[in-house]
Amino acid sequence: MGRGESKLGRVAFLLDHGADLNRPDVDGDTPFLCALYGNQTKTGILLLRRGSNPSAVNKSGQNALHLMAIYANVGGFEGLGDVAHHFKGLDPIAKDASGKTPRENFNEKDPPSSPELRRAFEEFMGKLQEARAKDNSDDEEEELFFDAQEAVQP
């Protein structure tokens, strides 16, 4: 790695050379979850596109949505909103080990979130809801197709 190369470039290099993108650390955080802690949106997107498990949960019971609610800035929500379909398997009302949902984590930020950050959070959650709804309707269509196939088979 050259001195001028970015962290993103280093992560891509490690992945190209076999790094396990879903291996958790001692706290149960995968590289993707660590990217969220550091608000490294581009790294998070790279890891998702390379197959990182967005449903990972750390030892504190936090999933990606909890960490985004705590650590993400406006750019983070906007950037990850573009890949919200990767999060469709996450439960937006899942509680972490302290009993809090992602929204509760967001609402308890100290200092309180700015109106701009709240807008970005709500837009991301809306995109997630759309992705989850689309996934559910795709499942229903697939079910109907197989039901129709069974009905016409002799």
UniProtKB/TrEMBL annotation:
Keywords: ANK repeat, Repeat. SUPFAM superfamilies: Ankyrin repeat. The keyword Repeat applies. Transmembrane segments: none annotated. It holds the Pfam family Ank_4. Gene3D superfamilies: Ankyrin repeat-containing domain. InterPro entries: Ankyrin_rpt (IPR002110), Ankyrin_rpt-contain_sf (IPR036770). Residues 94-116, 129-154 are annotated as: Disordered. This is Ankyrin repeat protein.
